[in-house]
Amino acid sequence: MLEHLPALQVVLPLVAAPLIVLARSTRFAWLATTVVSYACLVCAALLASRVADGGAISYALGNWPPPWGIEYRVDALSAFVLVAVSLTASFVAPYAQRSIAAEIEPDRQYLMYAMYCLCLAGLLGMAITGDAFNLFVFLEISSLASYVLIALGRRRQALFAAYQYMLLGTVGATFYVIGVGLLYLVTGTLNFADLAERLRMVQDLRPVLAALAFITVGMGLKFALFPLHQWLPNAYAFAPSMATAFLAATATKVSVYVLLRYYFTVFDPAALFERLPTREIFLLLSVAAMVVASLAAVYQRDVKRLFAWSSVAQVGYITLGIGLENQAGLTGSITHLLNHGVTKGAIFLLLGGVALRAGAGAVTMETLAGLGRRMPLTALGLVVAGLSLIGLPGTAGFVTKWYLIVGALERGAWWVVAAIAASSLIAVAYVWRVVEAAYLREAPAPAAARREAPAGMLAAGLAMAGLCVYFGFFTSINVEGAHAAAALLLRGAQ
Amino acid sequence: MIVALCLLLPVAAAAWLALCHRRPNLREAVSLAAAAGLFACVASLSGEVLRGGRPALVLGEIFPGLPVAFVLEPLGLMFALIASGLWFVSIVYSIGYLRGNGERHQTRFFACFALAIAAAIGVAFAGNLLTLYLFYEALTLVTWPLVTHHGDDAARRGGRVYLGLLVASSMLFLLPAMAITWWLGGTLDFTPGGILGGKVSGGAAAGLVALYAFGIGKAALMPLHRWLPAAMVAPTPVSALLHAVAVVKAGVFSIVKVVVYVFGLDFEPAAFAWLPWVAGFTILAASVVALRADNLKRRLAYSTVSQLSYVVLAAALLAPLSIVGAALHIAAHAVGKITLFFAAGAVYTAARKTLVSELDGLGRRMPWTFAAFGIGALSMIGLPPAAGFVSKWFMVSGAIEAQHWMALAVIAASTLLNAGYFLPIVYRAFFRPAGGEMHGEAPWTMVAALVFTAALTVAMFFWADLPLALARSLA
Fold it and tell me: Is B202 exposed, middle or buried (0-12, 13-18, 19+ CB in 10 A)?
């Protein structure tokens, strides 16, 4: 049984989706989703502990040995991403019941759950597969599901946001598959390990460089690498609450994982970082994202959009480690996949509760007025997650920042240290706009009564906010895992 | 064990306070009991520290080799004693002030007060830079609701400057300084003799000193001092305990701590050569601003800016005697300045006066308050029989020992300036005719508190043994 864990990890949510559609019952849909989400977390935790003990696990799907069959391969990095994704899922699933009931028409609710399961299956599949084309398939599964999730948003703009995301997302996926096609043309294989071996000899061929460019831009579109982020603010702002929380915490992160996988274990890192200006490009784009997108966040009125812009900036933190290309920097990047996931997850889960109680589709600064009195626990959770976003000590965000700063120092990139500090300072500005609105502005009279979000939603949001603090002090999960993953990537680099 | 108790007690008190917000008398009793308990706990550790023991507590590691750790050493003990002792006095005072002025949100006030003390104790006990930084930032955050207590536009503006400057300085300068120290020294533990000796020199060393000096924005070195006058929008007990004792002392305490335990007194003096000039400029410039300020709290705030730089100046001289002076001044200024703020709050409560020019004749209506104010003023100027004289004596001796004549000149000039902006207040209060309606002293709890701190200011002149013993074991 246990040796089939890698398959179960993906098959469980993949099978749940059609079952939900067949059953057409909202209650069953929620139950199945929750059970599957927790089962995925158990699978991921088991896989991670087995990888930590005994090294990478290779699983031949359908017993076809690689490189002919599709190989699922769990190493320190993919195990970390699996845990990050399914951890978020296990908070979002219980939350979804009340949130979806409030935001989606009754006859469509089970479809929302089905799409969520598909999206989860796609993301987990991307993280676990060891096959370039299989990754494309999972990428499309998760992307198509997420377009639907976003389009189900209550406001009319949701349709347009989903359409915009679909156009750019499709371009991204197409670019990726073109890149894979080129690699196949040159090497005749799709298995990552095989590709890596054969690419060592032909790294400087023009088709390989073209493939590198296509894959970089394609995945860059998917994880909103500045300046390819145009789709993200709208998509996050107009999607249903639980979709925003889930996608913000997981989708972009898995796409970054794909890029890390290609850069450090498929392509020849020596060629990539020594003969091409990869380092400079990623440092520049990351710093630009951290500064420009943070500044954009400061000027937003819509709170979900504000935090969406902040996500663009935080993706900059994650990609910064690629540019630093050393142990500390990559540890910072990889740990931020999880740290930012719980932080942004907590924020969007709590904002969903605010939106529900406000009754309006949009959460603006005016909606937040007096939140500290009306919804004290929600407001407190938002503050805690906000502090993690800024990166104050004792929060998950600080752990990331510390590794990135040390990594930048080791690289001798002083301007990057300054940029990290400056970007967290701008984060103070936008987080404090929210805090001021919540605590220093009086609530309009009719809405002044104290009323928290429904217990299930509140608990999920607060638990994630609690994780922001937990990961700030007890780093055995988020740092040790990331440290091992970074070491693995750099071993590939030698 | 007791170390953990010291940290937990105020946090537990804050939680408990929040629970009994419908019963103000019980709430205040809890506050007082927590403060008394905390002081007793800290005091019970002093014997061990004086004998050379270093009670320690290590919590889990955040990063490999970087735990949250607490080690109690003399300077930290002194800071903790001051903070916890004056917390008790401040609660007594606050009860009168908050009720006398009908302030809202009193529970939030006392709870945040307790959390601020917890953070200050964390700073005092910190065994490494990371722990210190953790509580340093926490202190900024938990005092923000106190600064913006009134919730109006002025409070919001003051809060923005307060939070903006303090967080900006610590993020832009202190965090990189800490990371650089880790990168160079491989440890962030406070080590007697320092950890950076021989590891960095020349311009880089001076730059690192600058990152620390300006990164610890709570020390209010110009031009990063603006947050302190901005924080004066807070109710007066906040200004008294936090912006004369806990927060600002956390700043200069961190500076002394970094100088003694990170750089070490044997660090090359050239790296510190520029710092006395900036500190000296701050001392004089802030005094000049104070001289011209008509708002009493603003004048006190700028006086604090100036007095804090005494500590920075003395620490930057790297002379053993001046370090003793710096450590003593942390204690001496605390008791003196809290007396002055208490008096200002008493005047506001009893007479609704906030401007220096309105104080004519109030000394005869409020003799206790203004007698205490006079003692506090003497301590600021550095005249006997007040605590300020003792610390100034050591600072002057240190300046002579280091043969730093500029520092000596600054201390002399600033003494005159201090006299120039404090003595007229005392003169006005006692010798000018009074106008307006009659009133007496403020509520008795407030008077009792300020008389007590004034007495403490005098007592520290005559019985300076304990602070002196603690300060001497530093250098």
Answer: exposed
